[in-house]
């Protein structure tokens, strides 16, 4: 079901006093995954912006399942769906050593074209039916 994945490693400074990845850092991991996915599929935020088009996160739902710790390697995965005017990035992060689910997220994004909410974007529409 996932159409993209990237492998990353937890860095010490991403962890809190309890020795686990701080909850806010997971959003950085999710964003990095989306940006790498879009870049791999030749979607440029700079080019879109220059055309008056901006893709923006409108909401994020995250379920924390188990913490990652310093030095853990993990795999961040995603796939995309469209619901109305929103593009939904379904994302998950798995600890690589045992494939345990660390977090699951739904990132809702919208497209703003020349300051107005857009209903569709061909550059994003082509990403919906991709397969690994």
Care to describe what's here?
The chain is of the alpha+beta class and 132 residues long. It has a single domain (4-125), classed as Thiol Ester Dehydrase, Chain A (Roll). It has helices at 25-40, 45-50, 122-125, and strands at 4-9, 53-64, 73-83, 86-95, 100-113, 116-117. Strands 1, 2, 3, 4, 5 and 6 form a 6-stranded antiparallel beta sheet that branches. A hairpin with a 2-residue loop joins strand 5 and strand 6 (116-117). The longest helix is centred in the N-terminal third of the chain and has 16 residues, at 25-40. The mean pLDDT is 95.
Features:
132 residues; alpha+beta; Thiol Ester Dehydrase, Chain A; 20% helix
Write the topology of this structure:
Layout lengths: L3 E6 L15 H16 L4 H6 L2 E12 L8 E11 L2 E10 L4 E14 L2 E2 L4 H4 L7
Antiparallel strand pairs: 1-3, 2-5, 3-4, 4-5, 5-6
Specify the biggest β-sheet: 6 strands, antiparallel
Order of helices and strands: EHHEEEEEH
CATH-defined superfamily: Hotdog Thioesterase
Rounded to an integer in angstroms, the radius of gyration calculated over CA atoms is 16 Å
The CATH topology: Thiol Ester Dehydrase, Chain A
What helical percentage do the residues reach?
10-25%
Low-pLDDT stretches: none
Number of helices: 3
């Amino acid at each position: 079901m996932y159409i993209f994945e990237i492998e990353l490693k937890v860095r010490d400074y991403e962890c809190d006093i309890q020795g686990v990845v701080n909850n806010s850092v997971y959003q950085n991991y999710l964003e990095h995954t989306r940006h790498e996915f879009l870049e791999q599929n030749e979607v440029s935020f700079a080019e879109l912006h220059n055309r008056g088009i901006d893709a923006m996160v409108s909401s994020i739902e995250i379920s924390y399942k188990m913490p990652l710790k310093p030095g853990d390697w993990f795999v961040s995965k995603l796939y995309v769906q469209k619901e109305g005017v929103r593009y939904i990035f379904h994302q998950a992060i798995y600890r690589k050593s045992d494939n345990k689910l660390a977090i699951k997220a739904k990132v809702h994004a919208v497209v703003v074209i020349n300051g107005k909410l857009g209903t569709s974007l061909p550059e994003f529409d082509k990403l919906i039916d991709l397969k690994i």
